[in-house]
Amino acid sequence: HDGSTWLFVEDVGDQRPSETDPEHRVLAAQWLGLLHGSGASVVAAARLPDAGPGRYLSHLRSGRDTIRRNLGNPWLAAEDRPVLTGMLEQLDALESRWPVLERACHGLPVTLVHGDFRAKNVRIRVTDASPALFALDWEMAGWGIPAADLACACGPGPTVRIDAQTYQETVRGLWGNLDAAVIRRASILGRIFQALASTEWACASLVSVSDRHL
Hints:
This protein is mainly alpha-helical and 214 residues long. 43% of the residues lie in helices and 7% in strands. Strand 2 and strand 3 form a beta hairpin. The termini are far apart.
């Protein structure tokens, strides 16, 4: 009643998931499967920001606009501009085929997603009972298809590696049609989405007025 608030904090350690540890991939797959499976029935989660293809089209356009505005930055080296020009061409080409990408999203479940499931945002704590996974930094959480979280389900990518079969088994009771082919499609979409988000984030440094920050 006096306006004060309690904040409970838990130490989850500093161990990040390893790409080469199969147990970590299984643990990450189980955790994501439980998040996505249970999150689909949380009514309040639907009020979170959109995490579907529209979010990543915005990332594409924002990153591209930032590149265009800063191609004249005097701190750019001569070899930088061809790279950035090539990126502009790729982003234009991707946007021209965006309807194809959106059609590839059809049929994927909509649920609560973390949105930034990278090793830097995940900790694994090992106890006598069993290892436990903790996800940090929920800034990009939203409501949409789980593609971005599954970017590393079927190949290399920027997110935590997961075991695709374990994920499929974890969500089977809710999404029986989510077979290996669908998970692979979501993984490919997720790599595209994560690349666009990373592009926008990285392009923020193009406004820097020193080579050190650029």
